[in-house]
Amino acid sequence: MNILGISCYYHDASASLLKNGVIVAAAEEERFTRKKHDTSFPKNAINYCLKSQKMTMKAIDHVVFYEKPFLKFERVLSQQIDTFPKSFKTFLKSMPSWLNVKLRVMRKIRKDLKFKGDVFFVPHHMTHAASAFFPSPFKKAAIVTIDGVGEWTTTSYGVGENDSIKLLKEIKFPSSLGLLYSTVTAYLGFTVNNAEYKVMGMSPYGKKDRKTNKYYKKLRKVIDVKDDGSYRLDMDYFYFHHADKMPSDKFCELMGSPIRKSKEEVTQKHKDISTALQLVYEDIFFKILDNVYEKTKCKNLVIAGGCGLNSVANGKILKNTKFDKVWIQPNSSDGGTSMGAALYAYTSILKKKRKYRLDHAFLGPEFTAKEIKKFLDENNVKYSTFKNKKDMIKKTAKLIYESNVIGWFQGRMEWGPRALGSRSILANPCNPKMKDILNAKVKHREEFRPFAPVVCEEDALEYFKCDEPIPEPTDFMLMVYPIKKKWHKKIPSVTHVDGSGRLQTIRKHQNASYYELIKEFGKLSGISILINTSFNIRGEPIVCTPYDGYKCMMGTEIDYVVMDKFLIKRNDNPQHMWDGGKTAKN
To answer: DSSP 3-state assignment of 560?
Structure first.
């Protein structure tokens, strides 16, 4: 049985293919179109999924969509009517896309995919819940989903057991913890649904004392929180329910200044506000988790929804709650719902036994050595070839040790927003200048943003104050932990201002080459850690193809790209050989 899950038309469109109960391929549309957070119908992602299994749509038994469009349209109409005439402009702006595209999903599937079989529509937060529970290692678990908004739901909890999920409680729009985070993101001058992680990364720079951070007290005024974690926003402070703008004039008055413009300096005030936001988020988040534990008495917890990417809060879950274990969907935001939709259809609609276990995120496209060589040769790229895998590992580790910046392009592309050792930029964490080098040469991003450390799973406790046993979400770079103080000066380029690191662990069975490279670097440096950041430049998705990887190197100052068994040195390929991809053969 083959099931195709689809997510699109809001942000992070994606497709996932379930074959006989197992996810065999999954990818976001942005990786193919090169448009970050692409919302469009994921035709390229669908084509990849099918091609990876040598299938056509004729082999698909069921297609599943990640939400109920008419229920969502009901909410949109309701909020427009409730706030009329303030909502008139957004009403006129939004209606064409609803009437011409978003309500015609079935027609799109039938016409564009030429699919004649069953099409299922699953509620948005149920697909989040399914994406969290069904691929998890647990037979039974409490489920928590938190995001901006689905159809009506913004927060929910329930229980998953064996092949079924039951959602027990929900909070509905316009009260939304995700939209509160996005509102402050917008106020701070960053892009909504794109830069919330920047605000999280900036939060360690502000005042962490709830008593002395005046913005914490101010933000608590905009949200009424009960002991059980239920909450309600004071909508006088928000415009998002009737306008394109998120913070209201009253919100700006409360904060004491207008919305920061994107090119304005980030001041200590902005850092204090980001800290206050993170503190408020954690206050509510942990009240929710405490209540969920008391109501479900489950020792295991699974999480999805966009807020599941808040790695700072995630790293405190086991220490701050009664849960023993936690698992988080690596693609927690809307991108992951195509997987959840397919899994939900298989188990809950078609009543099949659950069998899939997601223990790595390498579900995207891969390219053979023959395909890569063809690309390099056709574009006259100069390269050398490693004799064998051992040679590749030793040479690459030495280049990193010598403080070269390496583009690492190996195997199947990652599922989700984090580069996890397949499409990564790797560098030396021991070099105190490496953070600045990466920002200057490659990322061109804000100075306050940290770079992540990657370590082999069995070595993590040597460097980090982790929960024991180490939670699996660290495999997906979803938890921030303190770095042990004795290492702060030895690995300065991955030690954040508060002494923490957004940890990625790697297990040998997940990605042997990546694992062995870290170990080999450890032999040279005495420290078995690498900097791992996504293989892209700011504003672009993570690279997917050999073309994308080479173009990224030539458009930045990455020193080398290790692409399968080929080593490409930037200085061996003068800029005149490459015009940004205008004439290259992809």
So the answer is: strand
Among 16, 42, 23, which Cα is nearest to 31's? Answer: 42
Nearest CA among 508, 503, 513, 507 for reference residue 562: 513
| Three-class HEC string of 342-372 | HHHHHHHHCCCCCCCCCCCCECCCCCCHHHH
pTM higher than 0.85 for the full model? yes
Q: Among 541, 327, 503, 565, which residue's Cα sits nearest to residue 413? A: 541
pLDDT in tens, 569-583: 999 997 755 555 555
Q: What is the pLDDT of residues 329-371, one digit of tens each?
A: 999 999 999 999 999 999 999 999 999 999 999 999 999 999 9
Q: Where are the alpha helices (DSSP H) in 425-545?
A: 434-438, 460-463, 512-525
* Burial 464-487, CB ≥16 within 10 A → b, else e: bbbbeebbbbbbbbbbbbbbeeeb
Spatial separation of the C-alpha atoms in residues 526 and 524, rounded to whole Å: 6
- Within 10 A of 95 (CB to CB), how many other CB atoms are there? 14
Q: How far is CA 224 from CA 152, 176, 220, 393, 460, in A?
A: 19, 12, 7, 54, 39
Map residue 229 onto helix, strand or coil: coil
Q: Which long-range contacts (CB under 8 A, 24 or more apart) does 429-434 make?
A: 429/453, 429/491, 429/492, 429/493, 429/494, 429/527, 429/529, 429/530, 429/531, 430/490, 430/491, 430/492, 430/493, 430/525, 430/527, 431/403, 431/493, 432/492, 432/493, 433/493, 434/403, 434/493, 434/531
- In this structure, the number of other CB atoms found within 10 A of the CB of residue 500 comes to 20
Nearest alpha-carbon partner for 203 in 194, 215, 193, 211: 215
Neighbours of 447 (CB within 10 A): 8
Produce one character per residue of 516-548: b if its CB has 16 or more CB atoms within 10 Å, e if not. bbbebbbeebebbbbbbbbbbbeebbbbbbbeb
**Contact at 8 Å (CB) between 554 and 560?**
no
Q: What structural domains does the chain harbor?
A: 2-135+330-349 (3.30.420.40), 177-324 (3.30.420.40), 369-577 (3.90.870.20)
| pLDDT one-digit tens code per residue, 246-287 | 999 999 999 999 999 988 999 999 999 999 999 999 999 999
Q: What tokens were used for 322?
A: 């009664």
| Amino acid (one-letter) located at 85 | P
Beta bridge partners of 4: 17, 63
Peptide bond into 174 cis (omega under 30): yes
Q: Which of 65, 478, 511, 121 is nearest to 302 (CA)?
A: 478
Helix (H) / strand (E) containing 45: helix 43-52
Nearest by Cα to 119 from 66, 64, 71: 64
Nearest 5°: the CA angle 5, 11, 12 is 55
Alpha carbons 142 and 300: distance in angstroms, whole number? 6
